Amino acid sequence: AQSVTQLGSHVSVSEGALVLLRCNYSSSVPPYLFWYVQYPNQGLQLLLKYTTGATLVKGINGFEAEFKKSETSFHLTKPSAHMSDAAEYFCAVSHSGGSNYKLTFGKGTLLTVNP
Amino acid sequence: GAGVSQSPSNKVTEKGKDVELRCDPISGHTALYWYRQRLGQGLEFLIYFQGNSAPDKSGLPSDRFSAERTGESVSTLTIQRTQQEDSAVYLCASSPLAGATYNEQFFGPGTRLTVL
Fold first, then answer.
1. Contact between chains at A105 and B4 (C-beta distance less than 8 A)
2. Minimal Cβ distance to B109: which of A4, A42, A92
3. What are the pLDDT digits (tens) for A49-70?
4. Cα separation, A15 vs B109, whole angstroms
5. Which of A7, A31, A57, A67 is deepest in the core (most CB within 10 A)?
6. Residues B16, B84: contact at Cβ < 8 Å?
7. For residue B105, what is the nearest residue in chain A, using CA coordinates?
8. Minimum-distance CB partner of B43 among A46, A101, A105
9. Is residue B100 over pLDDT 50?
10. What's the helix, strand, coil split of chain B in %, to 5?
């Protein structure tokens, strides 16, 4: 069984400050890892994903995440927050086996950006 | 092209009534997924359709929940005898193909269901 823990249901940063959203996972097999963003009244949009290869992955809107196997983490970062980054962010894991279509999501982190 | 669409966007119903939620996937996407998002919770996997294969229904929470898909097009999620705990946002997603490598899931805007 796999699970995802997102530390902090709500993170507040100032515009221009570093954004760090934490995600830890558990998986019995090599994982695929994802970050999705959900803007108000919209569906989820994929920010970035890790499947294999380079452990530092870059996504849209200046976000990146690093897969750290030893720490079972996949934290999301952005050097400088913009007001438009305010949204809810979900970390998700699937595994690389036959049921790789199943995504297990964390509970989400609501990011607030203050002017 | 058009993304995943869902209807209705909002549904308010009385306890005990049946509801039907609709999902139109992206044209050409063979895989379709339903998720439930309860307030303050992550998304829960409900059901997965892939082409003509038998659907994976392992996430359906009770026999009051069922889903159908016509070929590789529209899907409907039906909840019978709704209960207040069914109140949630129901999200649909589609992807080009689920196979040995991951394919990105494209999500619709969801249907917000409120059971009074």
1. no
2. A42
3. 998 888 899 999 999 999 999 9
4. 27
5. A31
6. no
7. A46
8. A105
9. no
10. 5, 45, 50
Residues 6+ apart with CB under 8 A from B21: B6, B7, B8, B11, B76, B77, B78, B79, B90, B111, B113
Residue A76's pLDDT is what? 98
List the Cα angle B5/B10/B16 in 5-degree steps.
Answer: 120
Find all residues with CB under 8 Å of A88, minimum gap 6, and list them. Answer: A37, A38, A108, A109, A110, A111
When pLDDT is averaged across residues A5-31 and rounded to a whole number, the result is 92
Residue of A nearest to B10 (CA): A41
Distance CA B38, CA B42 (A): 7
In the numeric block, the tokens 């989400």 are attached to: A108
Q: Which residue of B has its CA nearest to A8?
A: B40
